[in-house]
Amino acid sequence: MNWPRDTSARDDARDDALYQQVKLLVRAERRLYASRIELDRQLARIRALNRFALEAGRSVDARWILERASTLLFELFPLDQAVACLAEGDRLCLAAIAAVPGREPQETVRLPDSRYFAPFPQDFFERPLAGPAREVAAQHACVEVPLGWMEALFGGSDRAAPSEALVLALPLLEKDRRPLGLLLARNPEPALISPHDRPPEEDDAGFLELVGSHLAAAVENARLHAELERRVAERTAELDANLRALREAQDQLLQAGKMAAVGTLVAGLSHELSKPLMVIHGYAEALLDEGPESPQAKKGLAAIARQARRCQDLVDALLDFSRKGPPQRDRVHTRDLVGRIAQLARSHPKCREVELRCEVAPEAEVEIFVNRSEIETALLNVVNNALEAAAPGTAVVLSVQGRDQRSEGDELQRGIEFLVADRGPGIPPEIRSRIFDPFFTTKPVGQGVGLGLSLTRQMIENHCGRVEVDSSPGQGTRVSLWVPRGEGPTPVVIE
Ligand SMILES: Nc1ncnc2c1ncn2[C@@H]1O[C@H](COP(=O)(O)OP(=O)(O)OP(=O)(O)O)[C@@H](O)[C@H]1O
Ligand SMILES: [Mg+2]
């Protein structure tokens, strides 16, 4: 059958037109599909960036923010390892490391590690950069050092040279465009990137700049917060120190008031005691001169004369003290001082059941410039307290050692420390603040006056020294008397 000629030509023309229409439609459909995919991608990016900005804005931990920014890049681009470096003064320092699971660093690094510090680069850049490592480094030599850090941390790849790794370099800038740091992300095996994954390209620069500015703002914020916290801690410590100093000054004032009252009392008492002591001493010496026959009496008289002399010295010292003049000073050898204390303390009845051990360290075998009588009395008070507190069968140890201390003016002062340690019941915490109070005693009436420690402190402070007590209930007590060795500054006399 033959078709009419003109009918067939018309049909061909119609088919052609139809075909062209379909082609156009398919093309339009493809474009539409591609735009939809691109739109979805852009939407996903914006959502991810918003999430990051929200989370980073809430954090004050710069390292966490940098790690979180790295994971954002891993989500959006075929990148799997990252390091972030921050400017610290004139140095660039490694500040964070991140990787997708399975691509973690081979080396564990405790940040900051001095191996990962570098001088801050001169050729810092302002726009994000992506491509093979060799090309990125050729454009900005400053990424070379951090790229080397990545290689050291994560190790290389068997399949590709380090220079071939796909690298994204994101500069971080402060508001005034000053360099703050650098985030470097990489994929060491670009050949294995799936065709569905799009490496960062030229038209991603705007989005990446946005990531960089959010990240920089969050890091700056975290740093400011840390600085603020540091300053608050510093101020708090300063305030605490001032408060402590104020409390100490109050205590000293209180103590000074008590001591002033005691001073008046002591002045009167010393005056009254001075004469009878002179009489006791005089008679003892006179009887000794007569040469008593029994050795027992001779020994007893010698002891009376010695102790009366000591009491007289003490009374003289107390009178000196109440006259507020500087005490008389002599050169005294620590060995002689300790020998004398041992001799005097051994007459204490408790010495029958408690051993008194004396140890002088070689560096402490020196002469010190002190008021002999005051230092002896102070030491004897502390040793007597220790003997009275010590448990039977234990030892009281008097040790002397060299110890240098800083004065209030931060001057290094050479000094000697006398340490008296006992294994007694210790000082209960509730009375610790009162043991230096004049007339405070826990001993039965007739056994303690409660003046030992308050006088000791007064005498040691007259020498610009310090008294410290360290006591643990049930374990024992250690009392330290520290005095400067040399002539030192003029002693402070509390009014
Ligand atoms: N080594 C110590 N172990 C336990 N408690 C101690 C020790 N040294 C001092 N104390 C406590 O401190 C108090 C005050 O001591 P301080 O030497 O001033 O007075 P005292 O020994 O009681 O009397 P005294 O005037 O005869 O020395 C003591 O009563 C005691 O409670
Ligand atoms: Mg005492």
Topology of this structure?
Blueprint lengths: L4 H54 L3 H15 L4 E8 L2 E9 L17 E3 L9 E4 H7 L4 H11 L11 E8 L5 E9 L17 H85 L5 H28 L7 E4 H12 L9 E6 L6 E4 L1 H18 L5 E8 L2 E2 L5 E2 L1 E8 L29 H11 L3 E7 L3 E9 L11
Parallel strand pairs: 8-10
Antiparallel strand pairs: 1-2, 1-6, 2-3, 4-5, 5-6, 7-9, 10-13, 11-12, 13-15, 14-15
Bound molecules: adenosine-5'-triphosphate and magnesium ion (MG).
CATH class wording of the domain at 54-227: Alpha Beta
Task: List low-confidence stretches.
Answer: 488-495
Report the principal-axis shape: rod-shaped
**Approximately what portion of the residues adopt beta-strand conformation?**
15-25%
Bound molecules: adenosine-5'-triphosphate, magnesium ion
Class computed from helices, strands and strand pairing: alpha+beta
What is the H-and-E element order?
HHEEEEHHEEHHEHEEHEEEEHEE
What strand order characterises the main sheet?
3-2-1-6-5-4
Helix content: 40-55%
